[in-house]
Amino acid sequence: DRFRSRRRASIAPLPALRLNSREMLASDFDTHSLASNQASITSVNSLASLLREKMQAFPQLIRKKKRETKDYKIKVFVIMMFFIIIFLIGYAYVAYHHQVLTRSYFQKLKFNSKDRIFRILSHEDKEVIMGHLGVTLDSDTAPFHCLENQRRADGSVCIEWNGIARLHLNFEDKQVFRCYTLQWQALRPGLLPTDCYELKRDNGLWFGGGITKGQEWSLSYANFDFKPYASGDHKVHQFGNAVKRYFINSIGVAMQVSERTPLQLGINRTENQFCLRAANDDFTFVNRLTPLPQLDYKICTTEDMRSLHMLMTQQSLWDGLTEQDISELHSLLEEPVWRIPNQEQRDHLNESVICDYSENAIAMGLGHIVINEFWQENIGDFTVDRARFPTLKDTIDVLHRRGFKVVFTIQPFISTDSPNFKDAVARKLLIYERYSERSIPALTRYKSSSSAGVLDITNNASVPWLLEKLQRLKDEYGVKSFYLDLGTGYNLPHYYQCRQPLDNPDMYARMLTSSLESAGLMAVSTASVVPKPPTFLSTPPANATWAGLRETLAAVLNYGVIGYPFVLAGAIGGDYLLERPLTKMISFYSLGQPPLPDAELFIRWLQLATFLPAMQFSHLPDEYHSELVTRVAQELKEVRQTVVIALLKKYLSPSMNEGLPLVRPLWMLDPHDPACLIVSDEFSVGEELIVAPILDAGLEEREVYLPQGVWKDGIDGSLRKGSRWMHGYRVPKDKIAYFRKMPDNTRF
């Protein structure tokens, strides 16, 4: 009680309570409660101590685990950094050695001499072409700079793979254009210098090569193994009747291969490769101009595909032209070519056939009347067959008074049945059999002649002999010009040998065409260089089918791309008719005029020919006795006279000066428009007329693409905005879709 405070003393004692079946007084309860409280305090203190120990140990445990986790992360980080450092060191090592090996030998050109990767950069240092040079070299062969006596004084770089091959690189700066010359020399037998470039890059397409066996619009769509690059029959051989060693890519890269290179071309779409190879063979490049194959070509680049094309094909065709030549050229643009229908046998051709045909042709206009080789008894006679043409001079005089010009077909082949064959053998004017010591003439087969010799153009006596006979024909019969039917390079005898070696078979046609320019040539059947105007290049004979129609357009456009501005398409309606595929060259057959084609095919063919540089007829519209055919022919005649001829003459000068064709693919209008690159069934006349012909049977509508600008529809006269497609454009059977370009400020 004495420990009670005053407050506790003022409180009444606690009542009695029962605790554990025992009654306790207040005093007892207080005593027990105090002991119990003391025990509880001790327990709490113990528990608190335990908790405090645990709490103190817990952070240490956490910190220990954190240290273990942190140690693990540090180890992982160190390992990763180790590998990264190793990778960077390795990459730096490889990059350093690659940089050491890759040199900018010339402006915008990089070449790694170890792996032979060749790159050309644009003005913005963007890679425009990449190639793998020396594909046939051993990959582990190390190159070195050529010895002093192997270097050239023209500034070129010379690199040699010891005893294997030697490469010369040179550069020519033409300001906007940059050209690089590459020349491989094989140094050991069996090595074929081969360079491969990307076939497709940034949607760029390769053009050139003329027409190919598959009739591809672009070389980027072709796929064939290495083939000799020479003129041939594209139905049998890889390339067509006209070639030129020029190839251009839409991204602004062009290649030109030397004529002295035994060029083989290969395209592999699977590996995305466009390859050039130098390789001799037993026919095309049998005359080895160098002891071992040599690949020599030039690459030029610029930002504009059109300008680059003009640079690579630029030539002045005006040189040496007379007023008579220009008048003849205009005549071929303005007036049709009339080819007298030929039959398989020469007896079917006589003066009456010629007179009757000319009378029927007058309704469509005047022009050149071409008489096939059957004006002579045998190929190579170079004299008129008087049994069938007793008064041919009078007949020709009548034709001249009517306004026609008469053209004789001539050939360098001389039939063994011709009297001239014996004379030519005696004078040694013919190509002779290889290894025969110029004693045995080499024979070949051509059209109606199953056995014929070939004039040796490298013999200085051959050309005067032939020119004398042609001049006699002109003097006696008043013949104005000749159609030179050369066949192709593959029409030469297989084991041919000339007095002077030819670079390749196409050199024969080039030399003969040049030698006969003074005699007057209206057209030639094959070429490897542009013939001097007014001579046109003929397209290959076309089958009288819808496929033949499509092939005609492809030939005209592709020959224009490689630099032939004046192209004479085959006869409207086709040159022959064969339902089965050919296994031999068409020139091995003496094929007559095809039967009258289907009226729809003839109309669509006539519509296309109306817009080409020259028109050629064999069948006449009157033969159909159809009001529709006659009306369409007259309407198209008016379109050509009022619209087309004026444009052809307007763009004649640019074609003569710059090598641009009169009839052009759309990409020549706008090379930066991707749609223009892929359109293969439209074309332009100059830069002011777009033509979209129908090329398939039964169609009266098509897709039409117009380049940028404003265009006037030739069918309904409406205005059309360019840079867009027109889907489902209606083209009735008697119409052809064409569009004239209007001034840029034209308003709708």
UniProtKB/TrEMBL annotation:
Ranges for domain Glycosyl hydrolase family 31 C-terminal come to 659-739
The UniProt record lists the keyword Transferase: no
A molecular function (GO) held by this record is: hydrolase activity, hydrolyzing O-glycosyl compounds
Q: Which UniProt keywords apply?
A: Glycosidase, Hydrolase, Membrane, Signal, Transmembrane, Transmembrane helix
Q: Where is the signal peptide?
A: none
Annotated Glycoside hydrolase family 31 TIM barrel domain ranges read: 355-495, 543-628
> Which InterPro entries does this entry report, sorted A to Z?
Alpha-glycosidase_related (IPR050985), GH (IPR017853), Glyco_hydro_31_C (IPR048395), Glyco_hydro_31_TIM (IPR000322), Glyco_hydro_b (IPR013780)
Q: Which GO terms describe its biological process?
A: carbohydrate metabolic process
Listed transmembrane segments: 74-96
Family, according to the entry, reads as follows: Belongs to the glycosyl hydrolase 31 family.
Do you know which PANTHER family this protein is assigned to?
Answer: GLYCOSIDASE FAMILY 31, SITS-BINDING PROTEIN
State the name under which the record lists this protein: Glycoside hydrolase family 31 N-terminal domain-containing protein
Organism, scientific name: Drosophila navojoa
